Amino acid sequence: MSALDSVQDGGLLRFTTAGSVDDGKSSLIGRLLYDAHAVPDDQIAALERSARRKGEDEIDLSLLTDGLTAEREQGITIDVAYRYFATPRRKFIIADTPGHEQYTRNMVTGASTADAAVILVDARKGMTVQTRRHLYLAHLLAIPNLVVAVNKMDLVDFDRAVFESVSASVIAFADALGAHAPILVPLSAKFGDHVVHESPRLSWHDGPPLLAILETLPQAVRLQQAPFRFPVQLVRRVPKADGGQSRLYLGRIESGSVAVGDEIAVLPSGNRTRVRAIGTYDGPLQSAAAPQSVGIEVIDDIDISRGDVFAPVAALSRVSNAIEATLCWFADEPYRVGRHFVVKHGTRTAPARIAEIVDRVDVANLAAEASPGTLQRNDIAHVRLQLASPLAFDSYRENRSTGAFILLDEQTNATVAAGMIAA
Description:
Blueprint: H1 3-6, E1 12-19, H2 25-35, H3 41-53, H4 69-74, E2 81-86, E3 91-96, H5 104-111, E4 116-122, H6 129-140, E5 145-151, H7 160-177, E6 183-186, H8 210-216, E7 230-231, E8 234-239, E9 245-252, E10 257-259, E11 263-267, E12 271-280, E13 283-285, E14 287-289, E15 293-298, E16 309-312, E17 318-329, E18 340-345, E19 348-362, E20 367-370, E21 380-393, E22 404-409, E23 415-421
Helix pairs in contact: 6-7
């Protein structure tokens, strides 16, 4: 019986890893997979052959995630690498994100749906500017669980004072952010100390090893607990028995639940109706919940099209053509005043422009530069957007699905930024 077959009902935990270059992210994930017996025998054999060719005594566990040729040649991670594994207590999806500052956009991509973040800090270097950037982004992206792994403790002789000094710096910065205190764990990814198993060389630390922490972290607030949100993706006309047609609205429930007979509003128009039927490929349902993909039929004949959002009358989304948001600029070319964009929010798109850059954040010291004239790659700024047509949205803190958007270049359709709508 495999680990996936025997896993207990601990749920699925999505977590992302981040850290400065050479902090050991890929080695940590490799060690985690290897010691948790989640690596197929053929992959281990391939790593052993590689080690023999290089004349090395031990296999390089970082190669389990650093799959790109350029990464292996340079010894760095330059893209988001996803791995899946399970223990007898839980299933996991790992997103290993780059450490270089110029790949901050990859971290935003990998962390946007994470239940937890594991941020590595080199015990010898302590807090760096990139560590602050990763902590800031984790807080910005509202990742509910944060673990800081102080790695390479073997290179500081497993000194408790070093760990406590790094921990104090991390906690102080998290406090300055207004973030909840992270869980801190000392470890050595290279030798496996406190990654999967407890280490006698870290006996002074009274917390569990990293894997035990991940196995017991709570998942993010379940989507079903948030208000019902259903962006319409497709409208399909379905023939009826009497020769007429009914319209079925297809899409995925992003949050909450819905039942036949519920009163809903169609946003942004605000028209109200009731749910007549809910269908799936396998047949009709009396109710459905996130993240199911369904078809919804309503009682009234009203104008509904792709991009509209169904919401309960008692808990409506906000509707506006003006949005305040935190923006992460992805594009290599800088933003210049006057550029025009397209906002993609759920299944809806709308022409937009940046009406104002309120300020730009220096993540090294959390200082805000008021009214900068431009944005460079990886800049984080608070902005006001003006849209050509209204959107139905929630704040990102309330709903990560309906509170997030991307900006596309109007001419090239390239993604230039990602945004989180403010409260």
